[in-house]
Amino acid sequence: MEVDRQPEETLVPSCEEDCVDLGGVKDMRLEAEAIINDVLFAVSEMHVSHSLNSALDVAYINVKTRERNQYCLELTEAGLRVVGYAFDQVNEDMSTHYHETVYSLLDSLSPGYREAFGNALLMRLESLKQNGQ
Questions:
Q1: Do 83 and 96 contact (CB within 8 A), yes or no?
Q2: How far apart are CA 131 and CA 111, in angstroms?
Q3: Residue ranges of the alpha helices (H) in the chain?
Q4: C-alpha angle 119/72/48, rounded to 5°?
Q5: Cα gap 74→84, rounded to integer Å
Q6: Which helix (H) or strand (E) holds 97?
Q7: Tell me: the pLDDT tens digits for 28-87?
Q8: Using one digit for the tens of pLDDT, what is the confidence trace for 16-31?
Q9: In whole angstroms, what separates CA 128 from the centre of its chain?
Q10: CATH assignment of 28-130, given 3.50.50.60, 3.30.70.360, 3.30.2280.10, 2.60.120.200?
Q11: What is the domain partition of the chain in residue ranges?
């Protein structure tokens, strides 16, 4: 039987549905845009940093909470964490912990986010109830 590949070659793992096929690596810039689209309704402002260099393995997101607090977030495979207390600011000496989701991170930073998210959830549930679902 003939084999098309050498035995030492490894197969590239399949990407998740929202992953761009980059040899099994997620493009963090695309992940950052998806995160922003998910929670923009519950914060005052949120965008990918234009002045900090994002790459395949890291992206920086600027967020202003409903309380008007500004943060610079770092997104990596490890998760999201605060790296600065102003837009486009990275403080290498900060040792904040990683959050697995943007929801967890924003919930810990912003009571206004928590309220907006809860209200949106209640509105959605009420809409489903009215539609008989």
A1: yes
A2: 30
A3: 28-39, 102-109, 111-130
A4: 80
A5: 9
A6: none
A7: 999 999 999 999 999 999 999 999 988 889 999 999 999 999 999 999 999 999 999 999
A8: 444 444 455 579 999 9
A9: 27
A10: 3.30.2280.10
A11: 28-130
